[in-house]
Amino acid sequence: MSEAVRAEAPTASRPAIAEVRESKMRTRHVDLWYGAKQALFDVDLDINANEVTALIGPSGCGKSTYLRCLNRMNDTIDICRTEGDIRLDGEDIYDRSVDVVELRARVGMVFQKPNPFPKSIYDNVAYGPRIHGLVGTKAELDALVEESLTRAALWGEVKDRLADPGNGLSGGQQQRLCIARAIAVGPEVILMDEPCSALDPIATAHIEELIDDLKREFTIVIVTHSMQQAARVSQRTAFFHLGKLIEVGETDDIFTSPQQQMTQDYITGRFG
Amino acid sequence: MSSIAERTYGATNTSTAISVFVMLVTLAALVWTGMPLLIVLLVGLAASAFIVGRTRALTLADGRLSVLHSLPHFHGWYMALMVLLPAFLLWVVLSVAQGPVVHGIIMGDLDDRLQTEQVIWPGTTLSPQAKDFYYQEVVRSAEDADLVTESVVQLSILGTDVDRGRLIRQIRDDGDRYGRLMFLGDTLRFLAPLVLAMLAFTWSVRRIAANFRARNQVERWVVWALIAAATISILTTIGIVFSVLFETLRFFGKVPPMEFLFGLHWSPQTALRADQIAAEGAFGAVPLFVGTLLISTIAMLVAGPIGLFSAIYLSEFASPRFRSWAKPIMEVLAGVPTVVYGFFAALTVAPFVRDVGQAIGLDVASESALAAGMVMGIMIIPFVSSLSDDAINAVPKSLRDAALGLGATRAETVTQILLPAALPGVIAGFLLAVSRAIGETMIVVMAAGLAANLTVNPLEAVTTVTVQIVTLLTGDQEFDTAKTLSAFALGFVLFVTTLLLNVIALYVMQKYREKYD
Ligand SMILES: Nc1ncnc2c1ncn2[C@@H]1O[C@H](COP(=O)(O)OP(=O)(O)O)[C@@H](O)[C@H]1O
Ligand SMILES: [Mg+2]
Fold it and tell me: Phi/psi of residue B298, each to 5°?
C-alpha cells in the first residue's frame, strides 16, 4: 500500500488553496525566555489541520524553540519560561489541568538527528503504544507496529529483520523509523525539527514524499533551513527572525510575493 | 614589532641575573637539606647549562627571535637535559653495578686462592652457604678488622676443614681489598657522572645555533621521560605479580593446591618447637572465600540499590544546584580512611546490630558479618553512584528527548531507556565496587572477627581473605613456614579475582563506549 501511495506525484495531491480549514493549533502572544534572555517575542500563529506548515528563518531565530512549545518539550529545560496562549483544538495546553504526558502523545515529535532507542526495530515502534497502553494483545501490537512502519514507508525494508537493532539502519531509514515510532502512538500533530538535515539527498527525497503522504492523516509542523524543502512539502510557511514571527501565509504566496521586505531578502538569499 | 624585540633583548641581562640568583638559592637549599654533593653539583651544572643555552640563543637572535628555529628557553632546556640526564643515568648504572662487581672480583677465584694460601685442602671447596658467610665476614672486616674473630669463623665455615689462623688473615686481606674496591667504586660513581655532565655541557653548547632544533630535541627527551615513567609502573606491577606468584608456588610445594582451594578447614598453626610436627595446621581456604563472599554480598546489597538510586536521582531529578554539592559529598565517602569506617563498624554499628538482634530474639555475635558488610557497603556507594551517574549522563540527550517526546514520564524514561542504555557503565561500576569490597581489609579486621567459621549466616563472625593475610603476616614470622607462605597464596587468589573483575569491568565499559560513536 505504501508503494502505491509513494508512486503518486507528491505535488499533484495538494488540496486546493481555497478550502476553508479550521486551525488545529493556535498560539497567541507567545513569549519565551531562556533565563534572562528572551528567545520568542509575541508569536501569533495558526497551524491548520491536515496541512504541512513550514517554519523557516535564519539559524538561531527561534524556530526550534517555537516548535518545542507546541508539545511543551521546553518544560524539560530548567531555565526556560513560557508565557502566552497555546491551544490544541481550543484547549490551553499550558493549563494546569493538562497532563503533559498525554499532550505529547497527541503532539508527537521527530528530531533533527535520527535518535532510535538502542533497542530492536520492533521495540522502537512498540515503545510508545506500550507505555500508553494502546494495545491489549501481542497480536494487536504486531499489527500496530506493521501499520506504523508501513505508513512510514519502511515496512518493506525491515519486515524481515524486526529484531535487529534500530541503530543498524541507514540514516534515512533511522529517521523513518523515528517517524514510525511517533506515528505508532496515534498523534494528531507531528512536529519535525529539520528532519532531513542529517540525511543525504535521496533519503531526504524519501522523507519529503512521506511527509506529503502523512498530511492526509496528521497535521504537520516542520522546521527546515532549506527554502526549497519548504516550498516542496509545505502548504503554509512562517518566516521567523530574531525570535519574532515576521510573516506567515500560503507557501506559494510567501515564495512568490512576500509582503515583508525582510522575508523577500531572506528567500532571495540576501541574509541568513 | 622591532620595539618588542628590543625590549625582549634588553630584558635578557636582567632575566639571566634572576636565573642565576634562583639557581644559587636552590643549590643552597639542596645543600642545606643534606642532598648528596653529587646531586647538588649535577643540578647546579644543569641549571648553569640552562642559563648558558638560553643566553646564547638570545645572543644569537640578537633581538630578532624569529631567526631562531626554537625559542631561547628550549635551547636552555636542551642543554640542561643533556647535562643532567645522561650523567644521572650513568650514576644509576654505576650504583647498581658497584656491589655485584666488587663481589665478583673478590669471590670469583676464592676457592683457588684459599687453596694456594693453604686455608683449605687442595681439591676442596667452600659450600655456597660458607661462601655467603665468608663474604659477610669480609664486609665486616672492612669496617673493623677486629670484628672477625676465630669463634665466628669456626662456627660458620662448618663442614670444611680450614686452617683458622690463615682463614682470618685471608678474610682480613680480602676485607682490605673490599674497602679499596668500594672506595674506588665510590670515587668513580662520583667523578664519572660529573665528567660526563661537563663533556655534555661543552658538546651541547656548541650545538646551539639559530637553526638548531632544540624544541624537537627537548620533545624527544620528554617522550623518553614519559615512557620511563610508564615502564616503571608496569614493571613494578609485573614484579609484584611474580614475587607473589613465586611464593605461592613455594606454598603449593608444602600444601597441595586442591587442599588449599577446596579444603573446608582453616587453622594455620605453626609448630612452636621444631619437634611439633603434628601442629602443621590446616589450610583449607574455603571458609575465607565464603566469608569474603558473604561480606561483599552484604556490602553490595547496601551499596547497589543506594548507589544506583542516588545516581538516578542526581542525574535525572535533582536540580543542578543540589547536584553540584551533593555529588562531591558522596564521593568523599570513598576517601574516608578505612580505619575510620572500621571503628565506626566495630563501635557503633556492630553493637547496634547486636542489640536490635537481641531485641527481636536473634542470637547475634558481637562481631558480625552483617555489621562489617553494611559499613563496607556505605564505603563503596560512591563507586556505584559515581560511575552509574557518569554512565547515565553519557547517554545522548537525544534519547532522553525521544522518550519524553513520545509521552514517557521521567521515571519511565530513566528505567526503560536511560538505564538499559547505560547498563554497561552501571555494571562496570558494580564490578569495581565488588573488587574494592573484596580487597577491603581494615573494616573487616575491626568488625567481622578472626574466626574462620564456614557459614553464610550474616549474624555470625566470619573472616575474610584479607584479614587472614594480615594476621598471618603481622608480628615476627619465619619466612619459610607454610603459615607465612599461605598468605602469599591468599594474596594471589585475591589478586587474580580483583584483576579479573577489573578486566571484565574495563571490557564492558569499552564495549559500551563504542555504542554511541
Ligand atoms: N537550551 C537552551 N538554553 C539557552 N538558550 C537556548 C537554548 N536553546 C536555544 N537557545 C537560544 O534560543 C535562541 C533560539 O534558538 P533555536 O530555537 O534553537 O533556533 P533555531 O532552531 O531557529 O536555529 C538562540 O539564540 C539560542 O541560543
Ligand atoms: Mg533549530
Answer: -60, -45
- By the 8 A CB rule, do A76 and B401 touch? yes
Cβ-Cβ contacts under 8 Å, A116 against chain B: 402
Beta-ladder partners of A221 = A53, A191
**In angstroms, rounded to a whole number, what is the distance separating the alpha carbons of residues B83 and B76?**
11
Q: What is the pTM of this model?
A: 0.70
Which residue is associated with the grid cell 518545542?
A: A68
CA A203 to ligand 1 center in whole angstroms: 27
- How far is C-alpha B45 from the geometric centre of its chain's CA atoms? 32
Specify the DSSP class assigned to residue A193: E
The fold of B295-515 is: MetI-like fold (1.10.3720)
Between CA A204 and CA A207 the distance in angstroms is 5
Q: Report whether residue A59 contacts ligand 1, using a CB cutoff of 6 Å.
A: yes
Q: What is the interface size between A and B, counted as CB pairs within 8 Å? A: 66
Q: Which domains does chain A have, with CATH numbers?
A: 19-98+236-272 (3.40.50.300)
Angle CA(A231)–CA(A234)–CA(A236) in degrees, nearest 5?
A: 100
Cα-Cα-Cα-Cα dihedral sign, residues B303, B306, B308, B310:
negative
Strand partners, A247: A239
Q: How far is B406 from chain A (nearest CA, A)?
A: 6
In A, what residues contact B, Cβ < 8 A? 71, 73, 76, 78, 101-105, 108-109, 111, 113, 115-119, 127-128, 131-132, 167, 178, 181-182, 185
Q: Are B441 and B353 in contact (CB under 8 A)?
A: no
Across the interface, whether the CB atoms of A115 and B398 are under 8 A apart is answered yes
Crossing angle for the helix pair B369-394 and B419-439, to the nearest 10 degrees: 150
DSSP B149: -
Q: What is the ipTM of this complex?
A: 0.87
Q: Exposed/middle/buried for A38, CB within 10 Å: 0-12, 13-18, 19+?
A: middle
Amino acid (one-letter) located at B463: T
Q: What is the pLDDT of residues A128-182, one digit of tens each?
A: 999 999 888 999 999 999 999 998 889 999 999 999 999 999 999 999 999 999 9
Q: Residue A97 pLDDT > 60, yes or no? A: yes
Domain edges within chain B: 2-99+192-231, 295-515
Task: Give the pairing of strands A219-223 and A37-48.
Answer: unpaired
- Shortest distance between the Cα of B431 and any Cα of chain A, in A, equals 23
Grid cell 510573516 — which residue? A247
State the DSSP string of B470-492.
HHHHSSS--TTSHHHHHHHHHHH
Radius of gyration of chain A, Cα coordinates, nearest whole angstrom:
18
